[in-house]
Amino acid sequence: MGACMQHDPCVCVCVCVCVCVTHRYTYEREAIAAWLTRAHTSPLTNLPLSHVDLVPNLTVRTAIKEWLEQQQQHARAQQGSR
Description:
single chain, alpha+beta, Herpes Virus-1, three-stranded antiparallel beta sheet, 2 helices, 20% strand, elongated
């Protein structure tokens, strides 16, 4: 699974809680929140961040949701052809 993905065994799906910070890079919420407790710099550039507000990345969330739906449809089609 990618850095932004978590597996939820209760519902057997991958969920993503991706957020952006000032410089518009996307991070997994828990990972960047932990980083920001130690530093107010970008983990990629080490440059100071003008603010540390975490903004949901809806574009990434939507893309992942669509991909997951496609994978589920593909799995159902595969099961139906057996």
